[in-house]
Amino acid sequence: MSNPVFSNSDVFGEPRRTARGGTATSARPAQYGAYGAQAADAASLQNMYEAPSATPVDTKRLTYTDVIMKTGGLLALLVVVGAVSWQLTDTMPYLWIGGMIVGLVLGLVNAFKKNPSPVLITLYTVAQGLFLGGISAFYESAYDGIVGQAVLLTLCVFAAALGLYSSGKVRVTPKFTRFLLIGMVGYLLFSLVNVVLVWTGVLDGWGMRGGTLGIVIGLFAVVLAAMSLIMDFDFIKRGVEGGVPAKFAWSAAFGLIVTLIWLYLELLRLLAIMRGD
């Protein structure tokens, strides 16, 4: 017995007997076997040629739109939670400290995960919103209008970094990467030493970050944050061009959020130092 799929097919079916005992011809012309398959193949190839090319959305690959949408959503969440935390600072003064600790832990977890977790990245954003709302309220109470200035400067630095990278005037080269790495390690060590000296009472106020030196260090930190943004843009570009899966838009958005938070805090502290203790 032949395969029923083929036997019931007009193309592959067996010859059928007529009422007179003859052999009926196939429902398709006899020459179909010779030329029909070629015609069908030619038509299929023509349709494939004329069909629109598959987009990154069709193939579920990373796109700039994915990154923009997820980054915008996380930033909106950050602002909303920050505004709520700001209002609760007087009644719940330690809420922002808890947000700082939780945000630090979740930031490390997300940074070392091979595959992005939308839930953990969202929770990180919420925790950082609590932290930023509280610390921003603290700075604003000491220096009127400083938060608005820091936000505006953050946006300006972001736009400048994006413009320079998009124009090709600043490129991510091995030298660029080495300078950024060395600068960030050196800045981290300096900050840790300064915090220890202030906490132990060896230095007061801003410690080594006060006065002219503090302003120079603050400007250097802002430059490092801006360079980190350029690195983020380059990673995103390579991801899009390399066709990485669309889920990594969460990783790109997370990276941008981390750098923007760092930049905002550095500008907030720099403005406070410039305005005096």
UniProtKB/TrEMBL annotation:
Record's keyword annotation contains Transmembrane helix: yes
Pfam families cross-referenced by the UniProt entry: BaxI_1 (PF12811)
Source organism per UniProt: Isoptericola haloaureus
Keyword terms: Membrane, Transmembrane, Transmembrane helix
TM annotation in the entry: 67-88, 94-112, 119-139, 145-167, 179-201, 213-236, 248-265
Highest taxon listed in the record's lineage: Bacteria
Region annotated Disordered, chain positions: 1-26
Biased composition (Polar residues): 1-10
Record-given protein name: Bax inhibitor-1/YccA family protein
